[in-house]
Amino acid sequence: MLRLGFIVMAAALLWSLPGTAAEADLEAAKKQIRALDVEFCKATIARDKERFVSFLAADAVFFGSSEPKVGKEAIVESWAPYFEEGGSTLTWKPTEAVVFEPGDLGYTSGTYELKLRDAKGNVTTSHGMYHTVWRLQLDGSWKIVSDIGTRPVPVDQPGD
Asked: What's the domain count of the chain?
């Protein structure tokens, strides 16, 4: 019995040491959601609505300048200008990725650039920060469950 107790304690100690399999799994998950965030941006740049939707959980919530958008349909409707050819563009870059134990929830955050195009074709550029929450799905994929950005800050335009 004493031997079994020692083995269990030794295993628990090894599991808690840096460099364990659990930490490696969290590191791998962080890399995965960071890469997914980059791919999510690429889908938006390509104006690929179907690919954009593939990153969203069914119950995703996006917080924007007005009321929250809940569910894929509402989110896609609010992002319609980014899917139109010649329309506004939104690009972003993750600067941080975190995954919490036990490894099924994490977030990415970073900076974004918004270029709004008016009816005359004039473009206004602004910057901000964003925070996207990712949840591991039963099928092993990561999906966005929540997204929020700071209010855009205008950038001085050339010739202003």
From this structure: 1
